[in-house]
Give the backbone structure.
Amino acid sequence: MSDCCSPKGYRWVFSERSARAEAKRYRRKGLDATSRRIVDYLKAQGVAGRTVLEVGGGIGAIQLELLKAGAARAVSIELTPTYEDIARQLLEEAGLADRVERKVMDFAQAAAQVDSADVVVLNRVICCYPDMPRLAGAAAEHAREVLLMSFPRRTWWTAAALWLANSLLFLMRREFHIFLHPPERIIATSESRGLREVLDQKGVLWIVAALRRVSAA
Ligand SMILES: C[S@@+](CC[C@H](N)C(=O)[O-])C[C@H]1O[C@@H](n2cnc3c(N)ncnc32)[C@H](O)[C@@H]1O
């Protein structure tokens, strides 16, 4: 991890308290709009029997929804340990604990220890990590069929909002930074690993992109 960010910084931003609040919101209202776009796209394509790898999935709501829709198994790789207790509670409540394996590690650093999956998901993760090529490249290499990602649009309003947020984080010495990695570079990095973009859905803040593996001729 680079100088901008530290494990302490991640734990402050993604605290146990915020994880519990997210779980409460998910129990009451279900998925938020961006996560819903990802799950709807994958359900429309068909997830029955597929394996799922979610990187930076937080409380694991997307994995839960994909398993309920018929996915076979899921692996969660999460950098911050604060989600683990509440994520396990949600899995137990849904009766799905035996179909998800959760590991706490930096996927960009430890990708070689993780098996590939049919479906790989990174929802709002790339903007929380300094080394985009390493993270997006490893995710693309692990996607046997499809890679789903969301990341911020590069507009004047997202640039202004992130500048403000990063200035506050710096002033508070929080050892965390939010990155506006250029969307075209994220896509190019993934495509260089044998995938091709099939979805580029722009919301006000977030782009949801899907890339499929190009079958060998
Ligand atoms: C903004 S949160 C998004 C959580 C969830 N995906 C969502 O959209 O609600 C970003 C998450 O990505 C995780 N993360 C960032 N870089 C990571 C990496 N290299 N490996 C694993 N997790 C990572 C962080 O720990 C954090 O939980």
In short: The domain at 7-213 is CATH 3.40.50.150 (Rossmann fold). The chain is about 40% helix and 25% strand.
